Amino acid sequence: YFATSAPTPSIIAEALVAAHNSNAMLASASPAGAELEAIVGRWYHLLLGVPACLSPQFFTSASQSHQHALVAAINRKTRGLSRRAGLTGQPPFAVYTSELGHFFARKNAVAAGIGEDRVRAVPADERGSMDVSSLNKMIAADIAAGIQPVMVIATVGTTSITSVDDVPAIAKTCRRHSVWCYVDAAYGGAFACLPECRWVADGWDLADAVCVNPHKGLFVPQGCSVLFLRDRQELRRVCDHRAEYLPESDPEEGDPMDFTFLCGVRVNTLASFFNLMTFGAEGIRRRVRHLLALATFAASRIAGDPMFELLTSPRFSTVCFTLRGHPDQPRQALDAKVSQVCSSIQTAGRCCISQTRYRNRLWFRLALGNLNTTRDDVNFILDEVRNTVIQAKAG
Questions:
Q1: H or E segment at 267?
Q2: Is the Cβ–Cβ distance between 157 and 164 less than 8 Å?
Q3: Separation of alpha carbons 130 and 138, rounded Å
Q4: In terms of C-beta distances under 8 Å and separation of at least 24 residues, what long-range contacts does 375-383 make, across chains too?
Q5: Are strands 361-367 and 354-358 parallel, antiparallel or unpaired?
Q6: pLDDT value, residue 130
Q7: Is 223 left (phi over 0), alpha (psi -120 to 50) or beta?
């Protein structure tokens, strides 16, 4: 869905992490692991242009980052009561996300005790962005019904079509209602490393938390998500449980385990460290630009092919397109053809393409993230789609 590749330096790093097998729960048990988090956090801060008001905390996935932020947001809303007594006696809470937002919002609402029915799917506008006017109305309706808004998730690069929500407008709505503004930039955030794409970070300075996954766009193996928080101590207020056999943590810095619900903490920043040391910031940027150029090339070819319809010019390195039908051709028939083509390509195994539904239509998703992908590869994939369509018609 967001294909990426791990270059040699990060693969070597993962082998070293496995060989050393360190549990970085305590800074005293893994001082190198704790130092790596601090160093790599600073480097990502600089690479992505993250506002100085946000501090980094590493997790293994965007869903894990969001889970921690959601519990911290609930704890703040209840003034610390939820940590001690749970949600007993509290009003029902609600979380808001775009109808195109990631499904982790529902999974984590279940885990946090809010319930998936309290996750509001805010309609998207014609660009696929969350409709802020609808958001305001939904928040007002919930407050009138005695339901407390606790978090709004603004997405920068939705999984479906990589659309981008209006983060500054959403953040201002959150501030009016004392609601956490959580920016899910797990995919799109990586592109903020490019000066020409700094717009990706618009509004981050107003957010309570911003999540970026280096394993989605910065060539790190699976298992590295960084959550930038306005107040990192919010995590500590819900996570700093400690057994008697463990030494006390530093009152100022704390231990890695004080900021996560995990008791075993893997060192997951060495791959980032090796990549950044090997390629440097400019080397990373050059590789990201290469993927953007491939997406632009793919979009131009699709736009010039009468068989296909391009959804929009790609914002990032994912391209969405579908089959162009005749005016009298039922939409269901075209959708069935898209699904059939995707299935046939997957079965053949020569390349990989996914599909998504948007505006009641099925679309192909071409996600470009491998360092070794070339224009020839893009041509091959698009030829595969075209030939598979032709074969399906002949059959």
A1: none
A2: yes
A3: 12
A4: 375/294, 375/297, 377/351, 378/294, 378/297, 378/298, 378/301, 379/301, 380/350, 380/351, 381/351, 381/353, 382/298, 382/301, 382/302, 382/305
A5: antiparallel
A6: 98
A7: left
CB 211 within 8 A of CB 183: yes
Instruction: Spell out a b/e string for 292-322, using b for 16 or more CB atoms within 10 Å of the CB, else e.
Output: bebbebbbebbeeeeebbbbeebbbbbbbbb
Per-residue pLDDT, 395: 58
**What is the pLDDT at residue 162?**
97
Q: Return all residues near 366 (Cβ < 8 A) that are at least 6 apart.
A: 295, 298, 318, 319, 320, 321, 353, 378, 381, 382
Contact in structure between 295 and 368 (CB atoms under 8 Å): yes
Give the residue among 222, 122, 224 at the shortest CA–CA distance from 173.
122
Closest CA to 71 of 296, 227, 265, 175: 227
Mean pLDDT by 10 residues, the chain (395 residues): 86 96 91 94 98 97 97 97 94 98 97 97 96 98 98 97 98 97 98 97 98 95 96 96 87 89 93 97 97 98 96 96 87 92 94 93 95 96 96 75
Q: What φ, ψ does residue 48 adopt, rounded to 5°? A: -95, -5
What pTM was estimated for this model as a whole? Answer: 0.96
* Continuous H helices in the chain: 8-20, 31-48, 62-77, 81-85, 104-112, 132-144, 167-176, 214-217, 233-239, 270-303, 331-348, 375-394
Asked whether 189 and 48 are in contact (CB, 8 A), the reply is yes
Sign of CA dihedral 129, 225, 201, 161: negative
Please say whether the beta carbons of 100 and 161 come within 8 A.
yes
Single-letter amino acid, residue 320? C
What is the Cα–Cα distance from 122 to 98, expressed in whole angstroms?
5
DSSP 340-395: HHHHHHHHH-SS--EEEEETTEEEEEEE---TT--HHHHHHHHHHHHHHHHHHHH-
**Phi, psi for residue 36 in degrees, rounded to 5:** -60, -45
CA distance 45 to 60: 18
Q: Around 58, how many Cα atoms within 13 Å sit in the side-chain half-sphere?
A: 30
Pairing of strands 180-184, 209-212: parallel
